[in-house]
Amino acid sequence: MTGNDVPVPEHDEQPIISHLVELRDRLIKAIAVVGVIFLGLSFKANDIYAYLAGPLTRHMPPGAHMIAIGVASPFLAPLKLTLVAAVFVSVPFLLYQAWAFVAPGLYKHEKRLALPLLVASILLFYSGVAFAYYVVFPLIFQFMIMTAPPGVAVMTDINQYMDFVLTLFVAFGVSFQVPIATILVVAAGLVDRAAIAEKRPYAIVMAFVIGAVLTPPEVISQTLLAVPIWLLFELGLLFSRFFTPKVTEEGAGPNEG
Question: Which DSSP string do the residues of 212-224 spell out, in sequence order?
């Protein structure tokens, strides 16, 4: 050891090690829960895929059906979907593990802000996925099948269909986080609530741009995504008044609670 070397106290290393151990334990719990749910659902893998394919198969012409191009696709595609479904079902538990890991390091006012937003975020994500499946998908696939050129048989590959649907699930789930994003920027003091309200026309235009990008070039499906995004923006703006940082009379800044 040279004269310039400074020994690191052992008590400074222990918190890091304990955090890493806790993180490992929580990751193991999360993987175990996903694995157990996956094993339980794997016996219904084909039924799960059939349910996912419902919005398409219900609008296919008589005699038309889906196809599997890959040799192992009939076996692997339902299992991949079942794994995604297991993660999807496990989201509340996974986020609880993440919350339990970071919560001890948060201030009281941060906990009061983060917990309800976390719960709302989960519900909004599930709502976006459900909206996509029950409202948007039937319209999208009906439009695609109706616009198929004469003589073209609509027979979608099961892997391509799954990738397309899961991508839209994520897109709609993330799009439905607009209220959370609005509340967070106001609560963090990044943008004033009144300033956001003044940008309402831009938000409406952006909602329709997102609708045009994520849906086929057809007015109904674009509107079915754009209008909810706009309404969710208004909802976030409404609730953001309860999360506006409190400022003292001297302008000291946010109330630390």
Answer: HHHS-S-HHHHHH
61 close to 150: Cβ distance less than 8 angstroms: no
Q: 157 pairs with which residues across the strands?
A: 67
- C-alpha 38/C-alpha 48 separation (Å) is 12
From the number of C-beta atoms within 10 Å of its C-beta (0-12, 13-18, 19+), residue 108 rates as exposed
Spatial CA neighbour of 103 closest among 26, 181, 186, 182: 26
- CA dihedral 190→196→202→207, nearest 10 degrees, is 80
Helices 10-42 and 45-52 cross at an angle (nearest 10°) of 80
pTM of this prediction?
Answer: 0.77
What tens digit of pLDDT does each residue of 80-90 get?
999 999 999 99
Side chain identity at residue 34, one-letter code: V
53 and 66 Cβ atoms separated by less than 8 Å: yes
145-186 per-position pLDDT tens digit: 888 787 777 788 899 999 888 988 888 888 888 888 888 887
The answer to whether the CB of 160 falls within 8 A of the CB of 56 is no
